Amino acid sequence: MKAIQILCLICCFLLYNCEYHIKQEVDSVKEDINKTTGQYITILGVAQDAGFPQINCNKDCCNTFYKGEETKQLVSCLGLVDMVSKQKWLFDATPDITVQTQLLKDHHLDNGKVVDGVFLTHAHIGHYTGLMQFGREALGAKNIPVYAMPKMKRYLETNGPWSQLVNLNNIELKSLENKVSLKLNNYIQVTPFLVPHRDEYSETVGYKIEGNRKSTLFIPDIDKWHKWNQSIVEEVKKVDYAFLDASFFSNGELKRDMSLIPHPFITETTTLFKNEALETKQKIYFIHFNHTNPAIKNQHRLKDSIKKLGFNFAKQGDNFKL
Questions:
Q1: Alpha-carbon torsion angle 150, 119, 311, 280, nearest 10
Q2: Do 93 and 200 lie in a common domain?
Q3: 222 and 210 assigned to the same domain
Q4: Are 97 and 133 in contact (CB under 8 A)?
Q5: Which of 158, 201, 215, 225 could form a disulfide with 239 if both were Cys (CB 3.0 to 4.6 A apart)?
Q6: pLDDT of 163 above 70
């Protein structure tokens, strides 16, 4: 009996000792993560401008949401967070900006500001109309920095209701230049670059976001890769992550002439990278999905087929170290 008691004591000691070391290892991992994630990108939305579900859509693609089979997807947006300087920025001001800024505040950084700045890509509804929430009828903000290219800046200054945001000092427009880097602080710099797109009201840009350790591309909208004066393959090789326009999965997805709304199909992008190393393919995270795109669903066989090739899909809540 005494031997059994001694054995039990030994087991308890070993178990406690094991748990103690496991806890130490977990704490150590947390400590390392805290040290290396001073700056990071968080995904705040993945849908095309009109979101998912889309207004007045009663087709199978959106009915899956109303049946409770799929979740709502916010419009494509990145959050940039710096836990060292206690700053946070948005890349695009979407119609879902109210929820997205709250996500930043609740799950990432509450620094007493709704946001430290917004970088705009272009003047299509999913990418700038969230600015309205900074206005007199809503937040009544004071001098929120909004970074914009020349044509986009003029558009906001000279067209209502956006000009009211400028006149009432709800926003403070900051000028950007093509391929000219902007240093946000000691840890982060941002570089806009022009891309071909339907530029009715403004030019369109993508962004390169660089931290101390890693860098990323953000190109939520572009026409076709061959129209760009850069090689997307070579540009992806230069960074650690690339969030790329994936509005449509393949040709024929819409019952209309899809050449009138040019975007790189997911199948076109994967074909461009088919001979590249797995390491390069794994840098790509598709984003900006139209409501008809099967990739917007949480699970789909076509989405799985692309994952098997080595590519990734951006998901709301995912974080990426810089």
A1: 70
A2: yes
A3: yes
A4: yes
A5: 215
A6: yes
Asked whether 167 and 141 are in contact (CB, 8 A), the reply is no
Q: How, if at all, do strands 144-148 and 118-119 pair?
A: parallel
Cis amide prior to 161 (ω within 30 degrees): yes
Q: Are strands 319-321 and 312-313 parallel, antiparallel or unpaired?
A: unpaired
CA distance 283 to 216: 9
**Residue 147: both structure tokens together:** 């970074």
Examine the domain organization and report whether 139 and 286 are in the same domain. yes
Co-location of 161 and 82 in the same domain: yes
Distance of CA 4 to the CA centre of its chain: 59
pLDDT at 244 exceeding the cut of 70: yes
Give pLDDT, residue 37: 57
- What pTM did the predictor assign? 0.87
- Is there a contact between 246 and 76 (Cβ–Cβ < 8 Å)? no
Is the confidence at residue 264, as pLDDT, over 50?
Answer: yes
Q: Please, are residues 94 and 119 in contact by the beta-carbon 8 Å criterion? A: no
For residues 60 and 50, the answer to whether their CB atoms sit within 8 Å is no
Give me the CATH number covering residue 243: 3.60.15.10
Confidence of residue 259 (pLDDT cuts 50, 70, 90): low
3-state class (DSSP) for residue 219: strand
Domain span holding position 162: 38-321
For 8, the token pair is: 């039990």
